[in-house]
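[Discussion] Sanity-checking designs against the backbone

I'm trying to build intuition for which residues belong where. Below is a structure token string of 182 positions. I'd appreciate it if someone posts a full sequence so I can compare it with mine line by line.
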């Protein structure tokens, strides 16, 4: 079966191919509905659901193309710990939107694989802090390299204009995550 890509239900102006402050201002002035979605624009009303779905599907595709032994959830946890520094199990569970027992299971498996370690929390003797090990950092770097190779091959055939759009979208998503993931 040959699958043809379905057309995006979103206006071209959402993706915007011009980056930089001048391009943003020009695009924003020309397409106010792309900046401030309104319920009267059906395509924009579907953007949150569509974006969440395709991001999730793309993350799974990227994980399949970047096999390094443990699942993408494990690497996401290791990457979060490395980025933010030592975290309590409750913080890991909250960030991953899982129960504390689920977070405990993931951390226990990562400990057994030598990717993270638990140490006593100096501010609360009832808690421990989870941090990455040197081996965890090394393997995380290897996973990122495989991800770059696997996903890079998917992006390679895209025209430069589309790559610039994806780069801008990635920056926007990172900014949203930084401001709401805490």
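Best answer:
Here's mine. Compare freely.
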């Amino acid at each position: 079966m040959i699958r043809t890509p379905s057309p995006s239900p979103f206006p071209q102006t959402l993706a915007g191919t011009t980056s930089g402050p001048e391009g943003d201002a020009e695009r924003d002035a020309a397409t106010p509905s792309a900046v401030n979605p309104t319920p009267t624009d059906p395509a924009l009303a579907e953007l949150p659901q569509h974006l969440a779905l395709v991001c999730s599907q793309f993350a799974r595709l990227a994980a399949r193309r970047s096999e390094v032994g443990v699942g993408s959830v494990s690497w996401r946890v290791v990457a979060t710990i490395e980025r933010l520094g030592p975290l309590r199990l409750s913080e890991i569970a909250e960030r991953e939107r899982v129960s504390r027992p689920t977070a405990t299971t993931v951390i226990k498996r990562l400990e057994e694989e030598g990717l993270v370690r638990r140490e006593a929390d100096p501010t609360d003797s009832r808690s421990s802090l989870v941090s990455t090990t040197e081996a965890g950092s090394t393997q995380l770097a290897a996973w990122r390299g495989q991800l770059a190779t696997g996903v890079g091959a998917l992006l390679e055939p895209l025209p430069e204009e589309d790559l610039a759009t994806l780069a801008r979208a990635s920056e926007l998503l990172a900014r949203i995550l930084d401001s709401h993931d805490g």
